[in-house]
Structure prediction request, 418 residues.
Amino acid sequence: MYHFKLLVRTFYYALLLLVLCSCNSSSEAVGQETPTPPEAVPAAQAWAGQTADGIDLYTIPPKLGALALDELQHRAAQKDPAALYELGRRYGSGEGIDRNPQKAKQLLFEAAEKGDADAQNELGIAYNQGLFGAVDYNKGFKWVQKAAQQGHPVAQYNLADMYEKGEGCQQNYKEAFNWLEKSAKGEFVPAYAEIGTYYKYGKGAEQNTSKAINWYKKGAKAGDPKGEFNLGYSFEIGQGISKDIKNAIFWYEKALDKGFPAAYSNLGSIYFEGKEAEKNYDKALYYFSEGVRIGDEKSLINLGVMYLFGEGTSADYRKAYNLFSKACKFISTKHVAVFNLAQMYENGLYVNKNLIKAYALYRSTIKMAPSEPNIKVSITEADILDSITTLKAQMSASEIAAGEAEIPKVMQEYGIVL
Prediction:
């Protein structure tokens, strides 16, 4: 009965994390609330990657794309910035010309030096991604800023992201918000949801949930998956708008159709709980499984919980253990993942019962206090301390000392980064 109570508590922690908390990506889902996603640079504007002989430019947007190669080369020879950019792109992709990544890089630099904003933005991204060697946020900031100051809406969005994270500059939410507004005026759609989240949390702007919802709606109507997701979450929790689960499902499905990861975990949670909708474990299992498949960290926790308790599927402690282990590596899920692993070691589920390791995992969870003021987690320090107190009652003084010594080992084993 004692072990069963512990597991039930783990189950509700995971579900509370799923339902009550909001997520990264300037979108709200499971685990945490932060105004900007780690992947803030729009995918369509990011360099494709690095090769042994230079930089791939497969994904940078075309310019003068319809121009014949001989005319393009002639204009590039005349140092036309737009032609230098486009010729560099073609050398990078091998489009109608032999691939030459080094030549591509040279032409792109030349276009940027001549003032081409597209080239400047791309160079900034390349430095930020470490595509010229080590990541260099100072150079990245320099080039993105040059493009942004020319009115390039994507660069303005990227510059806002750098100000928010303090990459190559002092962190400044107000400055980030100002650049997001400029990007939105240039009709760069991803900026809409970001502005909404700044208003929601009062970062860089006065907190205003009505304005947040209006920006989410604007993004959603423009087809931005982040805006669709944020609007769906607002409907789900009734924040700034009347609570409406049907509308939440509608907008989550819109975001999901575009592959927005967190939509899977939030839809799954609605069906798992029967939250003002019919409880449907099959749908919950499907959405969580798909979320795991496309890399949603919150779905790792939620699918693990289903396997742990055999809800909607056969109980499978091995799968639960593996899912929780993977979730340890993500900021938004590491607290509940490590806590659940501690429970499994304490109760001998899939793994051999090991109170020393359970103790070390509980203590590791204590060390992972959220650094963001808006992060919400359902496992509090008091909850963890209560579990540690209960566990210590079963342990000798030497076992407790061994548990303390085990903390660095378990953190390394599960890839826990503070």
The first strand starts at residue 49 and ends at 51. Residues 1-58, 371-377 have pLDDT under 50 and may be disordered. The chain has 20 helices and two strands.
